[in-house]
Amino acid sequence: MKRNRSKLVLYISIITILVLSLFLSAGISNAQDKKLTFYYVDHGTPGNPFWAVYYKGIEDAIQWLAQFGVEVKHLSAEADVKKQIDMLKMAVAAKPDGLVTSIIDPKTFDPILRPAIEAGMALMAANVEDPRPPEERIPYLAYYGEDTWKSGVELGAALIKYIKETNGFQPKHVLLCNPMAGHYVWEARLQMLGETLEKEYGTKQDKVVVGEDPTKAMEIIRAFLVKNPDVDVICAPTHFTHANVGLVKELGREAGKDIYLCCFDMMPETLQDIKDGKVVCTHDQQQYLQGFLPLIDLYLYKAKYNVHPYGIVSTGPIIIDRYNVDTVIEGAKAGYR
Description:
By secondary structure, this protein is an alpha/beta fold.
């Protein structure tokens, strides 16, 4: 993990130097033959705390690139695959110089994106990669995001470490809450977390699709807990995890004592819950970077330099727990975490 983090720091440092050099050189924009147009099409939901940080990354990149005449059109599909397909078709039809998107449905996206790439459009994947073998996957230049299969393992390891350090109880039943049925990243995260706990403690695991709507999600979680009072670990998206602190209290339990809560991603309230001992840990994929870096790299690539990273630009996972939460809180206040 330290090696991956050092690679990320090195990469960001290099990008920062390149960007500053380019932005301070007026000659580069003059060297462009035409105005560049990029599209950023994601599956995000405006108003969601996670996506607010993600969109800040996109907005900051847009502001930086505007001074060089680069136009960026940002579209959000609000967790609707069909809507994202339509947006991608519209974006490709506009024949942009570059496109960034989350590959949440590789087989359906492939016939839309591959012909555009062959025609000269540069593609970056962000947040969700194409999980197929290299010879089959959509030929994007790079993927920006977490190491998906590693995330669940490391979150599970952090929970196990906490249990050992605090001489806590060994969990018997974990509830894994999935906000998006069939979503590659969520399926992988929860699967690996469940398997990690099962391997260590023999923990029973149940995965439940709770959806994106907060009210409906909490109703589903409540119903499951009432029916299964032996659940002693809940893993859910960050915004549901904060709500779970209050929910388990209503059901006569105390988060952090007789039931463990952990989550993927973060928001200020969840960080405070970790600080208060209500939530054990969460994982950070640094979504600001996923919004910001792909657009900067598209510019570097299309401005006649062909500079671009290769493979996975890993932005996580970074585990947040009681040891490092104070530092992360400062980053969250600034809007970058």
